[in-house]
Amino acid sequence: MPIDLPAARNVHVNPTQDEMRSWVLQHMPRITETEFGNLNYEAEVTARLARSTFFVADEEIHQNRISRAEYEEWATRQDAYIADKDMILIEGYIGPDPGFQTGSRLFMEKTQANIPAMQQQLYFPKDDAWGPEFTVIYTPGLAAPGKPDDRLILVDLENYVTRVFGSDYFGESKMGGLRMWNHLVFERGGLALHSGLKAFPADTTPDGKEKVALIIGLSGTGKTTTTFRRQLDSLPVQDDFVALMPGGKVYTTENGCFAKTYGLDPDDEPTIYAGTTRSDAWLENVGVTADGKVDFFDVAHTANGRSTFPLANIEHRSPIGVPAADFLLILN
Questions:
Q1: What does the alpha-carbon distance between residue 315 and residue 318 come to, in Å, rounded to a whole number?
Q2: Residue 195 in contact with residue 216, Cβ under 8 Å?
Q3: pLDDT tens across 186-211, in order?
Q4: Structural domain range at position 227
Q5: pTM of the model
């Protein structure tokens, strides 16, 4: 059963991108409108916080863990903090395929509206059958004194809830849902792969049948770049996480892209560049001057600049009904 969301002063349910953009401009510091008309946020946190991430477990699990009792103490503290706050609720699916789509939601402080706006671009839209299975409760304004960097990410796989304290980095929202999805995939007998996915249309292959390739590798090895290159008229399908099930069946996760922007060039990575430079993309930790000029090679703040944009904004193969994988490319 899904948990009940904490009571809040006010909850904006599934606001539009335009509404969230207006709240970003109204409430958030370190926001710059770029030459492309989109918004860049310079976050205090520049990457996900592994040292601050704890799984709820009362027995040894050979990774950071926190007791159920202490988790409940932190949950109570977060619920009390939310009670007088304005919140945003974003609802949707991880995955589009009937039978394997997972109802997910993000409950987030309104004062950090860029994160729900970015997450909304990655969720598949809810329908009449939607119900929440995964919940991410996210309070950037609430620190966690005594924990690494005074920040805390709590992962409760028993109830499929992730609670985030003190971080303003979008990756904690995205991974908050996908980490729980990885566990669900394993429970269903599959492998969750940190993998790109691309398709070769039937009219481009020797046997006249569509072919599917998985591209796996650690961050920085070129997974996303390879996925989006158009070799043999191939089309990108996903750029981050997929499920590989027995028999080779592949299931996808996201309705948008979360792309690294360092070194982004229109000639070398035209698809990602086109998605990132639209006015409805969101940028995070990208080098932008005060007058909005974007420099994708600027690493003064971090080399881990990112963008999100909907799949609909680029040419791609539908992530629904992907056939069994034919190839596995490993990058190192």
A1: 9
A2: yes
A3: 999 999 999 999 999 999 999 999 99
A4: 191-330
A5: 0.96
